[in-house]
Amino acid sequence: MAIKLSLSSKQILNKVFREQTPGYNPLEVDEFLDSVLRDYRTIEENCLIAKRELSELQSKVERLEKENETLELENIKYKARYENLDPSMNVTKDNLELIKRIDTLERYLYEHNIDPTKIK
């Protein structure tokens, strides 16, 4: 919801009224317009701040959407990888971490030309 302002603070500041004898007191009008001008400048500043914050939030949303998409793809890979596990096997996260660790250690041994099946 954008706020459309019909006047700017410069227009208010530079406004000149024609002088008439039976009219209002020019000093009183000037003081009142000064207070309107202060409020108007506050509104303009708040509008600029809001636009800046909106821009930052939009870029953050875009970044988080990309991150979410990446995580969803990664989740799909893991689901496909672990969907064949039998529930009766009682596989836990700890077991999976141990299997990963064993796999890492076996790779290390194979890289150093040691057959892990022959170690006693």
Radius of gyration: 35 Å
Number of domains as seen in the coordinates: 2
Strand content: under 5%
Low-confidence runs:
none
Shape verdict = rod-shaped
Oligomeric state as shown: single chain
Count the beta strands: 0
Mean pLDDT: 83
Largest sheet composition: none
Fraction of residues in helices? Answer: 55-70%
Content-based structural category:
mainly alpha
Succession of helices and strands: HHH
Summarize the topology:
Blueprint: H1 9-14, H2 26-82, H3 93-111
If you had to describe this structure to a student in words, what would you say it looks like?
The structure is a single chain. The chain is mainly alpha-helical. The chain has two domains: 71 residues; 34 residues.
Concise description?
This protein is mostly helical.
